[in-house]
Design a protein that fits this description.
The chain contains 10 helices and 7 strands. It is α/β, with parallel strands linked by helices. A 5-stranded parallel beta sheet has the order 1-2-3-7-6, with helices on both faces. Strands 4-5 form a two-stranded antiparallel sheet. The chain is globular and about 50 Å long.
Length: 296
């Protein structure tokens, strides 16, 4: 495959197909991070199932007309530090060449550690990673869709640790006040952030009740169960256009798919912001067998 060739995404018809793609995306993440020796392992692996479901089953989107066609769903990644899973998914969905994944975090690469907009990488509408800001942008896009009578949806992905930021709750309050009902928030609830467990750094509980008190309809699911997540999003669709936004609290396991990356280590640390070593890569890829889709 040459640098200019775009990967043609496969049609994934079954949960087994989606699970295989999620495994391939996890392989891509491990290889990207090991090549760069920089980046965020845990959250990227934990969100592979959700990104796979979104781009290969749920979203209305077209990679070939990303910049020109507003007749698409919009997706914003607020917790931009998990960019490896987004880049890998976008490449697998046909937004840019698979070979470009090897440039992750390199100088002059379009695939920086946090998504940026200066190179107009297809799939990325805003720079993100300054935590707390994505929901505000998603709210603005949803209001714009409503003004334009655009029937498409806006999705915003956030981290649970990120929800310690006050701007999230300002946006949540504004969305409910303006009865924005074409917006779905998805929170990665893995109870991990760079300083340890979310509940120990600043406890969010009762988390679901907070969202309800701010005027949102709340759904909860296992974000690492593809069927359950897809069914939950489909349920969310039935709740839209009722003058309330919807948020899905998706419980995930940080580092999901590789046993020694999962959760919190015995010494209290985690893989939030640590890249794998070459030894880690070799062991991790043994736990993630090759797929029919092939490595980049």
């Amino acid at each position: 495959m040459t640098e200019t060739e775009i990967y043609t995404p496969p049609v994934l018809e079954t949960i087994e197909d989606l699970a295989e793609m999620a495994r391939q995306i996890r392989r891509d993440i491990i290889r990207m991070l090991t090549m760069a020796q920089s980046g965020h392992t845990g959250g990227s692996l934990g969100m592979a199932d959700i990104f796979t479901a979104l781009y290969f089953k749920i979203l209305k989107h077209n990679p070939h007309t990303f910049w020109d066609d507003l007749n698409q769903d919009f997706l914003f990644l607020s917790n931009g530090h998990i960019s490896p899973v987004w880049y890998a998914t976008l490449a697998r969905a046909g937004y840019f060449p698979l070979s470009e994944l090897a440039t992750f975090r390199k100088i002059n690469s379009r695939l920086q550690g946090h998504p940026a907009t200066d190179t107009r990488l297809p799939g990325i509408r805003i720079a993100s990673g300054s935590l707390g800001q994505g929901l505000s942008v998603a709210l603005g896009a949803a209001l714009g869709f409503r003004l334009d009578k655009n029937p498409n949806l806006v999705y915003c992905l956030m981290g649970d640790g990120e929800c310690q930021e006050g701007q999230i709750w300002e946006a949540a309050m504004a969305a409910a006040h303006h009865k924005v009902d074409n917006l779905i928030g998805i929170v990665d609830c893995n109870n991990q952030q760079i300083d340890g467990e979310v509940r120990k750094v600043m406890n969010l509980e009762p988390f679901a009740d907070k969202w309800k008190a701010f005027g949102w309809m709340v759904l909860e699911c296992d974000g690492n169960n593809l069927s359950e997540f897809i069914n939950t999003v489909q349920l969310a669709h039935t709740l839209l256009h009722k003058e309330k936004p919807v948020v899905i609290l998706a419980k995930t396991v940080m580092g999901k798919g590789v046993s020694f990356f999962e959760g919190t280590m015995p010494d209290g640390t985690n893989w939030h912001g640590k890249p794998p070593s070459k030894d880690h890569e070799a062991k991790a890829l043994l736990e993630l067998p090759p797929t029919r889709f092939g490595d980049f």
